[in-house]
Design goal:
With 136 residues, the chain is mostly beta strands. Helices cover 10% and strands 38% of the residues. The protein has one domain (21-129).
Length: 136
Amino acid sequence: MAFEKFEGSGRGGSGSTQAKVSLRKSSSVGLNSVTLQEFFEEDDEGVVMYYDDDENRVGMEPVKDVDEPGAYTLTRSDSGGSISPGSFLKKHGLVPDRTMQFEPSVVDVKQNLSLVAFTAGKSEDFIGFYGSGDDD
């Protein structure tokens, strides 16, 4: 059997072609580069967070201005982006013991509002865990 070169880096952003949102034990939300490209505009500077208690769904509204009421700053890097909505995550019991990854989709909520959303917990949106419980 011949050796095959492994091209993936094992780091969440650069090698992945799947959109992923991560709930981190550091009370932050990670967005890989694919998620930023597919669901966010380059000039989006903030994210307004929403929660549907009945469906246990998290919704994120990309906004151009971080001064938008309720907006959290969207920080970007080469591998993706992150948001630090600690109080939001704690209020809804969404801070995991280990980083959890989910597949986001667009949900039309009302006429002028579409959200980047995923179902928290184990669901059809759950991709898996990232790292060990001691990482992050």
